[in-house]
Amino acid sequence: MEWPLNFRETLRDGASSCPISALSNSIVQVQGERAFVETHYAVIHRLKHFLGYTDFYHHGRYLDIFELREGVWKILQRVICQDGERWFQTADLGFLLRKDPNRPAQGTTDRTDPVYLGFDLPKIIRTRPVLNDLWSGFFRLALTPLFIVRLITILLRPFLGVGGRTKHTG
Fold it and tell me: Which domain holds residue 15?
């Protein structure tokens, strides 16, 4: 399998939209040489800007009518039904886990990706230490941004006039 572009480098360099997408839960209803198909999708686009990154997540369904033509099923009509979307301001916090011995194998967009090992996959399996505290890595990732936001809020409070005491006169 050849990759058309270096996805990880593109994300790291901040290309505007390199989607990660998934299709799932196809439901098929066949009537003769036609079929009605509902397929769920989910997509994440990463957008780089002067504040960092924003991930745009949207999900929905493809509603398709297929037709059997010369022995091959082909899409006759498609309606895209968007069920929801979210915008997330994000940060690259991977540096917090880079040295973690329990980190999974890293995917790449070239022939060093673990998929190319096939049945030789056991070559990269390593013994991992027991996790006495299963949640420590999660809390390290989850709480660091909260701490930073809280610290910034505290430092900006005098300039924003937030949180100060107000005197009410009657």
Answer: 1-92
